[in-house]
Amino acid sequence: MGDNQSWFPELILVGFQLSADMEVVLFCVFSLLYVSNLLANGMILGLIWLDVRLHTPMYFFLSHLAVIDICYASSNLPKLMENLLFLYLAFVCTEAMILVVMSYDRYVAICHPLHYMVIMTWRLCKVLAITSWACGFSLALGDLIVFLRLPYCGSQEVNFIFCEVQAVIKMACGDSWFNKLYILSSAAFIITGPFFLMLVSYMRIVLAILKIKSNEGRKKAFSTCSSHLCVVGFYFGIAMIMYLVPDNGTKNEQKKILSLFYDLFNPLLNPLIYSLRNAQVKAAFYRVVQKQRIS
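The chain above was modelled as a monomer; its predicted structure follows.
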């Protein structure tokens, strides 16, 4: 192996080609969004922890989503490229699995309301949560293993805002067909698989809602899953564009912008959607504030 090849390259991120003034503006905006993400998801975790009325399977999985979103946005901070790549992929995959579990929870709540507490036991909830985390980190570990098998040489500039796996593999001087195949396969598994399962769940949910005779009952049933649908739409819509649309090398700038939704906007949107559109979360917030005033 020549001197210009390395198994552990030190990479230079190209990022956005912007002026110095614009970089300062974006730094301030992104810092504000990151802090807002920490505060919003932290608030969700705090409310679920403090209010016993939110100690249900739905909010149990929502607390996992909040933890993932906090770690998600923070996973780009480590300097070592191996940790960065592994953590980012792990949280991406885990969030997809948690969203699937949340759709199953909504399916049971609406389609089998009388048997909800019998089906969604705390034991099942813990098993589903552990399985989601294990599946996400296993897929990311597989990506990391096939990534490290390649030698890297030549330019060390990665044309992206972080060490995104597809951008880094383009720098490999070895045969990377297996890596690309693994990325496509894992992306199909973690994106199309969960999306299909959620589609089936919501088809059953819609059929169940249509059978409800009262308009008030239909509205209440739909409101319990509308927040989750908004999150799923943002998450999987961007993911499909990022990883399932063929890369012809002309959409790097667009993909950089889309990736910001994963790092900054998407983790911030989740708590905002669930808090603004969820009466139970808002009621829990008012109860906590009222208790603090009384104390």
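The chain is about 75% helix and 5% strand.
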